[in-house]
Amino acid sequence: MIKVIVVDDQNIVRAGFAALLNSQPDITVVGEAGDGREAVVLAERTRPDVVVMDIRMPGMDGIEATRRMLAQPCHEAMRVLVLTTFDVDEYVYEALAVGASGFLLKDATAEELVSAVRVVARGDSLLAPQVTGRLIREFTRQRRTRPQAPAELATLTARETEVLVLIAGGLSNGEIARRLVVSEHTVKTHVARVFTKLAVRDRAQAVMLAYESGLVTPGANPENSQP
């Protein structure tokens, strides 16, 4: 069972999400919270697998709540799925920067919400990495900062760098395997090593690092890039 807590300051929205998720045979909602501070306490008590987190809330918002939750060693395996009204939202960018595994629009269908919870629960980023890539390209372009490649990038092998570029292009492990003509198991090994060397939690953070470091440039198509 995937244990979930739902965090939203609107009672009707929160109850609706909780009822929908509880109706699934493989998902159980272990708690609900109306603000970020309450969510942090609830997560500590219930140890959920996934937190469905609204970003904009009075008091402690979803970004700060996500930061505090994921800073705790006991939440190393927990994933945060943030909810937003707009698909290009600087708050979403900040949420990804503090460790959220992806985002979902509040007007998503019931099927999309259920699928999103399952996706992040198994350690993937949501939903289509291309959407996360578009968000990151937009804000790295707006900030216009000079890319500074972290020293950890230099520790990647040529093949691991290639895999990182393809991750930033939105390719799944299976697609990367076909692109590189290797087994999917080999790709999973490369991805795991990339995450470990770069100290990122998941694909969403890996995509952000690829753009912010300048490995992939805003406006380019990373899927067709060569590292």
UniProtKB/TrEMBL annotation:
<dbReference type="GO" id="GO:0006355">
    <property type="term" value="P:regulation of DNA-templated transcription"/>
</dbReference>
<protein>
    <submittedName>
        <fullName>LuxR family two component transcriptional regulator</fullName>
    </submittedName>
</protein>
<dbReference type="GO" id="GO:0003677">
    <property type="term" value="F:DNA binding"/>
</dbReference>
<feature type="domain" description="HTH luxR-type">
    <location>
        <begin position="149"/>
        <end position="214"/>
    </location>
</feature>
<keyword id="KW-0597">Phosphoprotein</keyword>
<dbReference type="InterPro" id="IPR058245">
    <property type="entry name" value="NreC/VraR/RcsB-like_REC"/>
</dbReference>
<keyword id="KW-0238">DNA-binding</keyword>
<dbReference type="Pfam" id="PF00072">
    <property type="entry name" value="Response_reg"/>
</dbReference>
<feature type="domain" description="Response regulatory">
    <location>
        <begin position="3"/>
        <end position="121"/>
    </location>
</feature>
<dbReference type="InterPro" id="IPR039420">
    <property type="entry name" value="WalR-like"/>
</dbReference>
<dbReference type="Pfam" id="PF00196">
    <property type="entry name" value="GerE"/>
</dbReference>
<keyword id="KW-0804">Transcription</keyword>
<feature type="modified residue" description="4-aspartylphosphate">
    <location>
        <position position="54"/>
    </location>
</feature>
<dbReference type="InterPro" id="IPR000792">
    <property type="entry name" value="Tscrpt_reg_LuxR_C"/>
</dbReference>
<dbReference type="InterPro" id="IPR001789">
    <property type="entry name" value="Sig_transdc_resp-reg_receiver"/>
</dbReference>
<keyword id="KW-0805">Transcription regulation</keyword>
<dbReference type="GO" id="GO:0000160">
    <property type="term" value="P:phosphorelay signal transduction system"/>
</dbReference>
<dbReference type="InterPro" id="IPR011006">
    <property type="entry name" value="CheY-like_superfamily"/>
</dbReference>
<dbReference type="InterPro" id="IPR016032">
    <property type="entry name" value="Sig_transdc_resp-reg_C-effctor"/>
</dbReference>
